[in-house]
Amino acid sequence: MRYSASFLRPVWLCAAVFAAAAVSADPLDEASDLVRDEVGKGAASQRAINRIDDETRRLREERRALLARVESLQTYLRQLRALIADQQGAIARYRDGIARARDMEREILPLAERMVGALDEFVRLDVPFLAAERGARIDKLKAMLPKSGLSAPEKFRRILEAYGIEADYGRTIEAWRGELGETGEGGQIVDFLRVGRNILVYQTLDGGRLGIWDSEAKAWRALGDEYRPAVRRGLRMARETVSPGLLVLPVRAAGARGGERAQ
């Protein structure tokens, strides 16, 4: 079948237009693809930058925290060094104290023995009140000295305690009932009155006889009836049945020989 030239011309023109359109569409697609690629790459780069920024921020915070921890540890180490230095000084002082304590123990034990001996002699020469009680206290001290289970300071403390008890006798008034035989005059039960450690008197239970200890003669001697009211009041004062007051009883003056003066 044949077509005329006038009919083929429009067909050719259409083909040329479509061909030109096809040719012109390829660069646009390529450009669009390129733009999309670049946009994708840009987004990926931004995400990478964001990740790097986040990681940088995290590392910066970790670094700040590590620096703070390092500073805290350095402060702690300085404190530990100061503490160790103080402990070393304390250890040195303790060692020195232990060495001195050993030296003192070697000195205290002989001193303690001499003190017990002196206290024993003092009690034997003193006014003979509460002889059994005071003697038992001395015996306990003597038995304590050779014991290894007690430290030297503890032994010394007990000796000083005994000295304190003896010292207190000089500031107190006391009454008790006991055997006159404890001081060498039979076994009669009497009321004793001690005023300090200078006056020791007794009164028989019926009140009929009074006696006073003569430290120089180391014996009892009779006490006149004029002292009977004072002795009775002294007994009541010691037993806290009357209020304290003045007592008039004979006491030997310091350095006197046989003389007496009223107190």
Total E-strand runs: 7
Which class do the helix and strand fractions yield? alpha+beta
Cα-atom radius of gyration: 57 Å
The residue fraction in helices comes out at 55-70%
**Overall shape:** rod-shaped
Query: Beta fraction of the residues?
Result: 5-15%
Q: Low-confidence spans: pLDDT under 50, at least 5 residues?
A: 16-21, 253-263
- Tell me the number of helical segments per DSSP (H or I, 4 or more residues long): 4
Mean pLDDT: 80
Order of helices and strands: HHHEEEEEHEE
Largest sheet: 5 strands, antiparallel
Please state how the strands of the largest beta sheet are arranged side by side: 1-2-3-4-5
Head-to-tail CA distance between termini: 177 Å
Describe the structure.
Helix content is 62%, strand content 13%. It has 263 residues and is an alpha+beta fold. The chain has a domain at 173-263. The strands form two sheets. A five-stranded antiparallel beta sheet has the order 1-2-3-4-5, with helices on one face. A hairpin with a 4-residue loop joins strand 4 (210-214) and strand 5. Helix 1 crosses helix 2. The radius of gyration is 57 Å and the shape is rod-shaped. The termini are far apart. Mean pLDDT is 80; it is low at 16-21 and 253-263.
